[in-house]
């Protein structure tokens, strides 16, 4: 009992207990509000449609545009549509080939091609896989109905031409009509191409794992460096301490960038860019996280950890690694656009799966680092310099 009482004489005990409670409360509040109504916003998902067939494909294009529950953008070029898919501006591209009508009339079957970007949130890929199957079935229903109408319309004249008895011709036509109406062939086949595809489930978890590990590590490191800085404030000048912290941050970011490469190699996670680009990108990811977490503890001291916990939860739900960003509410989409994890996830999708260049994400991470470092610098500039007075003893 005495030991328990001793623990509660130190504020660190209360801070630790409060942190445990804060994690639970913050994660519940943010995750439940961020993911509330997600499935009701599937109409925010974006699909590109490229119709190269000017016959039956035009009608199918109109049917898809009016019935599909996504935002549909029509393209005249498959290259442009696939480029936007790589830029994460689309979640799927549907191509109706130029020979679609000819294949249906000549061979009785035709392919519709679906391009689904695998460098995307898991939920988005699953929804688009299901949508591709549903659209194919809908096209089959329409094509079969169209074929039946064409055949049934021609039957009476054909029978009357070869059968002398008009009544017998009409009866045969009626019987044949019933047969055709009961016929349900799969005339349209789905050809799904998974762009930027990588084998293995582990690779799909790399962006989430790196963001989670990097940010949590940054939180703990920033908190401990701040504690050390407070202990040394009477011995060193505030700017000397601040510069020393940035040097340590950059050194650790370099070490962790190299360590990330080692783990990617050890666990056979291939990347689509060169080794130096991957190392540089991870350096800026960790450096951005360190500057963000450092900013809060510099401004609020130990209480800044509360903001870091909020930042961790916000970044996990808004980064787009679990749920597509477009399926979140406008508030969480706006918040995510200001947080470095969004660009870390986008960048790692490019590194692991392929796609556009990393320049946009690198610039965003650099900007985030510069802003948070400037805010911390401003807070340090307002701190009073404390000097230690030495006493001489005789």
UniProtKB/TrEMBL annotation:
Q: Where in the cell is it found?
A: Membrane
Membrane topology summary: Multi-pass membrane protein
What molecular function terms (GO) are annotated for this protein?
ABC-type transporter activity
**What is this protein called in UniProt?**
Membrane protein
Domain of life according to the entry = Bacteria
Q: Which Pfam families does this chain map to?
A: ABC2_membrane_3 (PF12698)
Q: Where is the ABC-2 type transporter transmembrane domain?
A: 21-377
InterPro entries, A to Z: ABC2_TM, T7SS_ABC-Transporter
**Record-annotated membrane-spanning stretches:** 12-34, 205-227, 247-269, 275-293, 305-323, 362-382
Which organism is this entry from?
A: Lederbergia galactosidilytica
* This protein's UniProt keywords: Membrane, Transmembrane, Transmembrane helix
One GO cellular component this record assigns the protein to is:
membrane
């Amino acid at each position: 009992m005495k030991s328990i009482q001793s623990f509660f004489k130190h504020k660190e005990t209360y801070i630790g207990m409060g942190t445990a409670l804060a994690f639970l409360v913050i994660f519940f509040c943010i995750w439940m509000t961020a993911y509330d109504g997600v499935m009701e916003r599937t109409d925010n998902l974006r699909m590109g449609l490229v119709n190269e067939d000017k016959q039956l494909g035009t009608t199918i294009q109109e049917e898809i545009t009016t019935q599909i529950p996504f935002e549909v953008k029509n393209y005249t070029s498959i290259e442009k549509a696939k480029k936007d898919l790589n830029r994460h501006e689309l979640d799927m591209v549907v191509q109706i080939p130029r020979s679609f009508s000819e294949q249906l009339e000549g061979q009785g079957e035709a392919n519709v091609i679906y391009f689904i970007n695998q460098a995307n949130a898991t939920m988005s890929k699953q929804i688009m896989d299901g949508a591709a199957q549903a659209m194919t079935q809908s096209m089959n229903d329409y094509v079969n109905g169209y074929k039946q109408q064409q055949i049934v319309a021609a039957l009476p004249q054909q029978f009357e031409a070869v059968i002398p008895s008009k009544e017998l011709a009409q009866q045969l036509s009626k019987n044949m009509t019933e047969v055709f109406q009961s016929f349900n062939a799969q005339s349209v086949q789905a050809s799904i191409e998974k762009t930027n595809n990588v084998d293995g489930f582990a690779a799909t978890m790399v962006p989430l794992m790196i963001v989670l590990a990097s940010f949590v590590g940054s939180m703990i490191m920033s908190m401990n460096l701040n504690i050390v800085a407070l202990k040394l404030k009477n011995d060193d000048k505030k700017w000397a301490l601040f510069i020393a912290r940035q040097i340590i941050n950059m050194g650790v970011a370099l070490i962790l960038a190299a360590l990330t490469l080692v783990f990617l190699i050890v666990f056979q996670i291939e990347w689509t860019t060169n080794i130096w680009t991957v190392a540089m990108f991870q350096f800026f990811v960790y450096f951005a996280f360190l500057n963000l977490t450092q900013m809060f503890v510099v401004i609020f001291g130990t209480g800044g950890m509360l903001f870091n916990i909020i930042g961790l939860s916000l970044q996990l739900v808004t980064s787009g690694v679990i749920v597509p960003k477009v399926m979140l509410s406008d508030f969480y989409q706006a918040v995510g656009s200001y947080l470095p994890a969004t660009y870390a996830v986008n960048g790692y999708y490019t590194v692991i799966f392929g796609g556009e260049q990393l320049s946009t994400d690198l610039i965003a991470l650099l900007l985030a680092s510069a802003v948070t470092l400037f805010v911390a610098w401003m807070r340090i500039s307002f701190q009073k310099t404390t000097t230690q007075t030495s006493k001489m003893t005789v």
